[in-house]
């Protein structure tokens, strides 16, 4: 995996939500006052106040019984629209999926991963259009057919109509997700090759903080190791037979819980870089040293020296077999040269090592991992490379403590739950948009928010972050980039010092400031995609994955209710 789970800061997120809610509400109130003054004159502010009072009364006095009735009607309407036919398409896809997924003879190192990714991705992309179309076209169709006119003549509040729609569509989507989720789980268990069944696990990692030391033993100025020329800068490297090292610090460990087991499991996915080929079948080695910073105890032995066999005998043998069969496919290349998968290191509780610093020469000693090495819940692991002119690369998430595994069902259904949360958010946004625009426009608006929040938000975040830190963006904003494009000017060259350049920079700064504020309004749909966890056999963490999605979905419920209520209350239903 290439991700580095970061715990979600819930207090900061809640504070940002309150600020954004107050700011948007204030802007809406100011716009409402201005429009009322322009349309009805001095009586406008009084009308705005009356609308606000009526809205507060209607929202605080909503009836659960009436909302339930409207929810039931929405479900019946969805059934009449034959929305449940999507389940038939889902079944057809699963009937023929086995033709295209790996079989028992596959040489993939993770043959279970495509099955898991296929099921979770299929659930997402088959239910997303259904949620989008149902939520965005329901109210406009009712208004066009005048069926909503019958509802509003009854003692039903506008907020109840909005919530009834959201809950109704949510109930339909919930049924889809439950059926597809259970069916997908059965499909995975039955179709994954028997040799890959052991990959259906839910590993529970504990990540630490990494620090890089350069070849002279000093902390790295950049906070990373060496760059060996790889265009992908996720991992950085340390040089062998120098003072360079990577040190992971695991804090706040539950020693009492760990001590129940006779060993501690470390798992890594280090990468090797060879400055010379050497013996191609011999791995590049790395050495782990367990350190107690309080008393200076350093423990290592032969069992903590491992190797990265990126050109193992087994892979070379498979490549030779492929050569004998005149196989020139990419699978042959991947089999022979793909990087070694994760390595599991089991550290026993009682570790025997040679103390080279002992008085009177080398002495063999035995220490207790939980009592002598782990200091006040903190474990320090130092990684070095004992091979001269070779390099070991890693990122912060490449070494972790592996707690006892959980069942695959736990991580799988957590991912299904996150998909359900995403669809509920789409139902909220789509139903809200349909209260003030027609179906096609509501669909376009909701789909645009999905694209912005899922795919374009990372670029927006990076641009805004660079602007906040440095006061400028490399290459400039939209106008400056366009100017550099038509004038064939590179990114590093300064702009001419004239009024036009200063105007371009000023406008771009304003656009970037708008983007900076829009970050707090556009939902971050990337929170809901946890397929990478389940497909790679990792547990979906609460603080880094589940909590952001739950907080995001709940945060949009109140704004959607307010916008939907006032839009529907102030809308002329006869205006189709």
From TrEMBL:
Membrane spanning stretches: 12-38, 83-102, 114-139, 166-188, 412-432, 439-456, 546-570
Keyword Chaperone among record annotations: no
Keyword Membrane assigned: yes
Residue ranges of coiled coil: none
Keywords from the named record: Membrane, Transmembrane, Transmembrane helix
Highest taxon, organism lineage: Bacteria
Protein's recorded name: ABC-2 family transporter protein
């Amino acid at each position: 995996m290439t991700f580095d789970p970061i715990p979600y800061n819930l207090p900061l997120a809640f504070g940002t939500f309150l600020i954004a809610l107050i700011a948007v509400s204030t802007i809406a109130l100011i716009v409402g006052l201005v429009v009322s003054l322009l349309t009805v004159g001095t009586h406008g502010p009084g009308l705005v106040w009356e609308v606000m009072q009526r809205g507060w009364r209607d929202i605080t006095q909503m009836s659960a019984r009436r909302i339930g009735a409207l929810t039931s009607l929405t479900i019946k309407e969805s059934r009449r629209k034959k929305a449940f036919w999507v389940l038939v398409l889902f079944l057809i896809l699963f009937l023929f999926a086995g033709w295209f997924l790996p079989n028992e003879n596959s040489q993939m190192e993770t043959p279970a991963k495509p099955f898991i990714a296929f099921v979770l991705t299929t659930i997402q992309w088959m239910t997303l259009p259904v949620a989008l179309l149902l939520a965005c076209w329901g109210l406009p169709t009712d208004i066009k057919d005048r069926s909503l006119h019958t509802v509003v003549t009854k003692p039903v509040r506008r907020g109840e109509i909005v919530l009834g729609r959201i809950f109704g569509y949510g109930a339909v989507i919930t049924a889809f997700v439950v059926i597809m989720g259970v069916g997908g789980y059965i499909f995975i268990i039955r179709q994954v090759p028997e040799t890959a069944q052991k990959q259906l696990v839910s590993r529970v990692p504990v990540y630490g903080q990494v620090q890089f030391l350069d070849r002279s033993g000093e902390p790295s100025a950049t906070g990373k190791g060496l760059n060996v020329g790889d265009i992908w800068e996720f991992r950085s490297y340390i040089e062998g037979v120098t003072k360079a090292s990577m040190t992971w610090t695991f804090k706040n460990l539950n020693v009492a819980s760990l001590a129940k087991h006779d060993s501690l499991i470390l798992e890594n996915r280090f990468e090797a870089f060879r400055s010379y080929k050497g013996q191609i079948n011999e791995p590049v080695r790395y050495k782990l040293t367990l350190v107690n910073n309080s008393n200076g105890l350093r423990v290592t032995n032969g069992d903590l020296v491992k190797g990265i066999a990126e050109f193992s005998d087994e892979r070379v043998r498979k490549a030779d077999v492929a050569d004998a069969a005149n196989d020139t496919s990419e699978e042959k290349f991947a089999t022979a040269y793909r990087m070694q998968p994760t390595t599991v290191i089991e550290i026993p509780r009682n570790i025997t090592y040679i103390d080279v610093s002992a008085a009177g020469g080398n002495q063999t000693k035995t220490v207790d991992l939980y009592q002598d090495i782990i200091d006040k819940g903190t474990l320090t692991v130092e990684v070095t490379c004992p091979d001269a002119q070779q390099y070991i690369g890693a990122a912060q998430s490449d070494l972790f403590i592996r707690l006892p595994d959980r069942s695959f069902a736990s991580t799988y259904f957590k991912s299904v739950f996150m998909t359900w949360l995403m669809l509920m958010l789409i139902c909220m946004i789509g139903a809200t948009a349909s209260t003030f625009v027609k179906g096609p426009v509501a669909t376009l608006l909701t789909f645009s928010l999905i694209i912005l929040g899922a795919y374009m938000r990372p670029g927006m975040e990076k641009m805004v972050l660079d602007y906040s830190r440095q006061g400028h963006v490399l290459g400039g904003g939209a106008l400056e980039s366009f100017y550099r494009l038509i004038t064939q000017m590179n990114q590093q060259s300064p702009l001419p010092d004239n009024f036009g350049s200063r105007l371009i920079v000023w406008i771009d700064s304003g656009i970037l400031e708008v983007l900076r504020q829009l970050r707090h309004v556009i939902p971050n749909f990337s929170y809901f995609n946890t397929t990478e966890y389940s497909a790679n056999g990792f547990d979906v963490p609460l603080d880094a994955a589940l909590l952001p999605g739950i907080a995001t979905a709940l945060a949009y419920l109140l704004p959607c209710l307010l916008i939907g209520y006032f839009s529907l209350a102030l809308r002329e239903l006869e205006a189709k």
